[in-house]
Design goal:
The chain is of the alpha+beta class. The protein is 25% helix and 36% strand. The chain has helices spanning 21-30, 60-71, and strands at 7-15, 35-41, 50-58, 76-82. The chain has a four-stranded antiparallel beta sheet, with helices on one face. A hairpin with an 8-residue loop joins strand 2 and strand 3. It is elongated. It holds the Pfam family TM1266-like. It comes from Anaerotalea alkaliphila.
Length: 89
């Protein structure tokens, strides 16, 4: 089996249900080891929509775990883009 390698990427999160905020932050905390940076924009242009962007550095399994858990939350949309190049763990 080939050795796992890290990838660098971005994860975009759109939060439309404020009731999911607590669980969303808990999931981010659980995956803090792969999050290199976070930027949030609350209430985009006065709308009740929050946008969070993450810079991640982890294996595809780790990043998939993060995005998979976030994607199950009500009112949360998640998309990711990962580098093609891999990096040693």
């Amino acid at each position: 089996m080939p050795e796992q390698q890290n990838r660098i990427g971005v994860v975009g999160i759109v939060l439309e249900d404020p009731g999911s905020t607590l669980r969303l932050n808990e999931i981010l905390h659980e995956h803090a080891s792969i999050i290199s940076g976070r930027m949030g924009i609350p209430q985009v242009r006065g709308r009740d929509v929050n946008v969070i962007s993450l810079v991640v550095d982890g294996t595809t399994d780790d990043i998939g775990s993060l995005t998979g858990k976030l994607g199950t939350l009500p009112g949360v949309s998640v998309k990711s883009a990962l580098s093609k190049k891999t990096y040693p763990l």
